[in-house]
Amino acid sequence: MPNRAEQPAGETPALQRGGPRGWRYRGYLPHFDGGEMWQTVTFRLADSFPTDRLEAWKWELRLLSKEQADQELHRRIEEYLDEGHGARYLRRPDIADTVQDTLSFFDEQRYRVDAWVLMPNHVHVLFLPLARWSLSTIVHSWKSYSAKQANRILGRSGRFWQEDYRDRYIRDDEHFLAARVYIENNPVKAGLCTRAQDWAHGSARFRIGSAGVPPA
Q1: Which CATH class is domain 21-48+84-179?
Q2: 3 state SS of 154
Q3: Which residues are 129's β-sheet partners?
Q4: Which one-letter DSSP state was computed for residue 38?
Q5: What is the pLDDT of residues 96-149, one digit of tens each?
Q6: Concatenated DSSP letters for 54-117?
Q7: Distance (Å, rounded) from C-alpha 134 to C-alpha 23?
Q8: For the chain, what is the radius of gyration of the CA atoms?
Q9: Cα 189 from chain centre
Q10: How many CB atoms lie under 10 A from the CB of residue 25?
Q11: What is the average pLDDT value for the chain, to the nearest integer?
Q12: Which neighbouring-strand residues pair with 22?
């Protein structure tokens, strides 16, 4: 667990109180900083997905409507990530523990995390930014601090996370529950376990418990 006296790497006073920024583009994906509204975010390891494949898929889908192309592109990316390409550093318990601790570090202070899962090469989180903490600031802090700690454990340097990330704001209660179910069952979908609660680094084991019921 990080020391609260140690400010997460890459976070500056100028970033800390950056309020909602609305729609903006960085890298390949649009991002929506909407203030205090539930969001899902996915970020992945630097070697988990090749840029040339993304460009090829975009070209293949260019004749579809933007909504259809975005949905199909998202489906293909998720399917590719679930195949577990790259170094898969998050399969190491010490690295996964580090990332999971980072997600929970400012829970209930800067954001509220409802669901999360650490896959071998990517992370899904369902969370609510609080007060004026923007989505981009929160995700930057998660990635910057955890990358520094993970590289230290691995004895390596260089980029740990892919620079960009995917976010999507939650429309309604039905969408919220669907997002939670998808996130917590991602290891089952990828064939990594048979029950969501059996996955060591995800919220299902806390919400459901090993006996299949919520813990007391």
Answers
A1: alpha beta
A2: helix
A3: 111
A4: -
A5: 999 999 999 999 999 999 999 999 999 999 999 998 899 999 999 999 999 999
A6: HHHHHHHTTTS-HHHHHHHHHHHHHHHHHT--S--GGGSHHHHHHHHHHHHHTBTTTEEEEEEE
A7: 12
A8: 17
A9: 17
A10: 9
A11: 86
A12: 33
User: Residue 148 burial (CB < 10 Å; 0-12/13-18/19+)?
Assistant: middle
Residues 6+ apart with CB under 8 A from 171: none
Q: State the Cα–Cα distance between residues 6 and 58, nearest whole angstrom.
A: 41
Render pLDDT for 38-72 as a digit per residue (tens, 0 to 9): 999 999 999 999 889 989 999 999 999 999 999 99
CB atoms within 10 A of CB 133: 24
Tell me which residue has tokens 């400012």.
Answer: 106
| The Cα angle at residue 19 between residues 15 and 21, in degrees rounded to 5 | 105
Report which residue type is found at 193. Answer: C
CA-to-CA distance for 164 and 183, rounded, in angstroms? 19
pTM (predicted TM-score): 0.81
CB neighbourhood size of 31 (10 A): 23
Q: How far apart are CA 177 and CA 168, in angstroms?
A: 14
Q: Does residue 37 contact residue 169 with C-beta atoms inside 8 Å? A: yes
Cα-flanking dihedrals φ and ψ of residue 55, to 5°?
-65, -40
